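protein under study:
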Amino acid sequence: MNSTLILRVAVAIILLTHSVTGIFDNGINDFGNLYLNQIGFAPFGVFLAWSIKLSHIIAAVLLLINKYINFAAIVTILVLIMGIILVHFQEGWFVVGGGRNGMEYNFLLICVLLAIMFPKGFLKGTEGLRS
């Protein structure tokens, strides 16, 4: 069994549920029209919103089938970083509790995606240096 299987499945579930619900509750269009267009991305807000959500769905599938993992992770990390910059940073750190809509969840997803990309750590081949 692949050492990243649990993390890949978990991230795939998160990406799918976050994306698919927006398809059915008009959330993607609302995000594009009511947020992205309003902060300067008009007239491309809806296109960007759909691109983001479709990238999440594609990344989830790639994570599940364990193919093109680095591509899926890098694209998703870039989306998450932009989410931090555009949406979550101004709300602070906490998603709930000490605040609302903060960046801690994106930060954790970025760390998990990095762990999936580098299951042996960043310094591959230097395991002998670790204690």
